[in-house]
Amino acid sequence: MTTFTTRLLADRWSCRGFLPEPVSRETITQVLDLARRSPSWCTSEMNRRQASLIADMYISRVGR
């Protein structure tokens, strides 16, 4: 990796702010369902089962 690339990655920052409250499974499922319906590159939209599995994985790692 070049020095430029290393510096670029090291200086990266995110302007997102997160609340301390956990996100409910219902909210995660709703967001994933909306994302599932949006257009994607090479027609690789996820189905409802995939969205549910992702929500379950998130909740098992982060908790409620």
TrEMBL record:
<dbReference type="InterPro" id="IPR029479">
    <property type="entry name" value="Nitroreductase"/>
</dbReference>
<protein>
    <submittedName>
        <fullName>Nitroreductase family protein</fullName>
    </submittedName>
</protein>
<feature type="domain" description="Nitroreductase">
    <location>
        <begin position="10"/>
        <end position="44"/>
    </location>
</feature>
<dbReference type="Pfam" id="PF00881">
    <property type="entry name" value="Nitroreductase"/>
</dbReference>
<dbReference type="InterPro" id="IPR000415">
    <property type="entry name" value="Nitroreductase-like"/>
</dbReference>
